[in-house]
Amino acid sequence: MVPATAGRSLIKNMSIFAALLLKRMLIARTRKELDSFFGRAGRENRTLGLVPTMGALHQGHMSLVSCCNSENDVTVVSVFVNPTQFNDPKDLEIYPRDLEKDINMLSGSGCDVVFAPDVETIYPEPDNRVFNFGPLERVMEGKLRPGHFNGVAQVVSRLFELVKPDRAYFGKKDIQQLAIIRKLTALTGLPVEIRGCDTLRENDGLAMSSRNMLLTGEQRKNAAIIYRTLREATLKKELGVDQLKTWIADTINSNTLLKVEYVEIAGSSDLQPVTHWAGSEAELVICVAVRAGNIRLIDNVFFSNFVLL
Prior knowledge:
The protein is an alpha/beta fold. The protein folds into 2 domains: 14-197, HUPs (Rossmann fold), CATH 3.40.50; 210-308, Pantoate-beta-alanine ligase, C-terminal domain (Pantoate--beta-alanine Ligase, Chain: A,domain 2). The protein is built from 13 helices and 11 strands. The longest helix is centred in the middle third of the chain and has 16 residues, at 148-163.
């Protein structure tokens, strides 16, 4: 029989994988704490999945956690509001943060480790790396938010370095970000499989987003027109590309609480704009960015009803 003191010592010093057997969700705030969780046991024959987030978690994030759980032995969720990807300091300042609520939401979700570092842990020194994503970063979000995707690449590559996941999970709502991260792994040779997960939506169709909680009640109610318009647009085969983009913008802008920043129709893999419905079959995506007051919302829908020149 093992003495009680010996048992407590064993539990205190067990590896993360033994801890998982007891259904404990571990929380790391520093690189040392993270390393200690993984350093006491090998990773042989165990897969690790990472769900990178900026917190303010919602059911969309939980769907990523669920997908990660189903494909890996260990699930790590990072919670870090990355300053290098914000073009507007005010946007960084108002971005919702509630780590305690996030941890409570993750408890019981199947998440095994919450990695919630501070800025100094992610960036012990200024990160001056500049990534070249070519045409991919010069359209849509990249065009309107110069430097944004470089900041995304900085933080994601650092998280990959610290956590060393086999797979990482991102939502298709941020489709350009997903494409950028896939390009990042190709450019850097990072041995991480990038998994894109379907967008989760509210009952009225609005894509789930941490920014939704910043909307007023009236803005939130009217924001449902964004997805409704995109869905209807996929059925308008009689319109040309430019006509369809104009129709989408005019329809959304007819709501006085909303203002379209861009509408783009692009190939779903390279996100380069298309101009004609002709040629070979291709999957396309309609992407929009819309402002509701000071809150910026993005969304997209995939469709393959058209053929591409």
